[in-house]
Specification:
alpha+beta, Immunoglobulin-like, 20 strands, 2 domains, Methyltransferase, Cobalt-precorrin-4 Transmethylase, Domain 2
């Protein structure tokens, strides 16, 4: 239910490996289909010094304007599949140049880029550079050193954006990006607001605006557990019932980077830690829909079946359900 970036997951695989260089070597010796060049993975061999600003500018624009990606220097993949290791001869110089160029090769600069350098062996001058370029909330980014074009990823290539795509990329500057955060918790008998001697299993939901624009007239609908205890954050008017669904209207706009508590609900209880959940839980799959002014509604689903059975304390961010 959590929505990790495929690019970030792949990047983390590399940097968290016992031997990151060994991981990169296995891209050649033990290739996996999911590690071929695709929308979020790009490979580059040794760049010529005069070509580096153009290559770096284009890659930053391309991946930041798309869904993000991982760029690996030191592996050749002429047909998309990595076929040979080609470590850069001076990894320290390339690492320095990539960092220094970050502010100058795109307009606006791409933030959040993570660059890691790995020598082939301890003390070696040759090595690999692995770059994580996140999807940017401030896109589109123009490649100042690559024909002043706006690029985006299309399959395993970086291509100039069409006028239609550029309009779509500029449009999100007036679009919010609403995310539903959730967590479960257990209230011990000493702090339980209800019957002493019971452990209460709570579900908490909050709404974040992760986009660059303010969300106005925010409305959230939610199908609760029948008869459960519930608290609603001050950000919302008291809910209104629509059949078996509750509708929550925000009292004010939700600004960028704000994360407002929405619902705090008991979904089960038990008397001793070793006891099974004794409450007759009506639902363990929760359906949430969120609206904002000039935005299409977004649907989310939270399946807590396994968490409820195990009384697990956990949390996450929900993926929007497919169209």
């Amino acid at each position: 239910m959590i929505a990790p970036s495929r690019a970030k997951s792949f990047f983390d695989e590399i940097v968290e490996a016992d031997r990151p260089v060994g991981f990169l070597e296995e891209l050649i010796s033990k290739p996996r289909q999911d590690q071929f060049e695709r929308e979020y993975i790009d490979f580059k061999g040794e760049p010529k010094p005069d070509d580096l600003p153009k290559i770096w500018s284009k890659a930053l624009s391309c991946l930041a304007n798309s869904d993000g990606g991982v760029l690996i220097w030191g592996i050749e993949a002429p047909e998309g599949a990595p076929i040979r290791l080609s470590p850069v001869r001076d990894w320290k110089t390339l690492d320095r140049d990539l960092h220094q160029m970050l502010r100058d090769v795109t307009d606006p600069p791409v933030s959040g880029v993570d660059i890691r350098a790995y020598p082939v062996s301890e003390g070696s001058q040759s090595g690999f550079i692995v770059c994580y370029i996140p999807a940017s909330p401030w896109r589109p980014h123009r490649a100042k050193r690559a024909s002043n074009e706006f690029y985006m990823r299309a399959g395993d290539n970086c291509v100039p954006c069409s006028l239609t795509i550029l309009r779509a990329l500029f449009a999100p500057q007036s679009v919010c990006n609403l995310k539903v955060h959730w967590r479960t918790r257990v209230a011990t008998p000493q702090i339980s607001p209800m019957s002493p001697g019971h452990f209460y299993y709570w579900l908490e939901l909050s709404l974040e605006n992760a986009g660059p624009s303010t969300a106005r007239d925010v409305l959230l609908t939610y199908k609760p557990n029948s008869g459960s205890k519930r608290a609603v954050g001050d950000f919302w008017f008291p809910p209104t019932a629509q059949g078996d669904t509750l509708a929550f209207l925000a009292r004010r706009p939700l600004h960028p980077i704000e994360n407002m508590p929405a619902i705090n609900e008991v979904i089960g209880w038990f008397q001793r830690a070793a006891d099974p959940m004794t409450r007759d839980i009506k639902e363990t799959v929760f359906h949430i829909r969120v609206w904002a002014e000039d935005q299409l509604p977004v649907d989310f689903e939270l399946d807590l079946t396994a968490a409820v059975q195990g009384k697990v304390v956990t949390s996450g961010i929900l993926n929007p359900m497919p169209g």
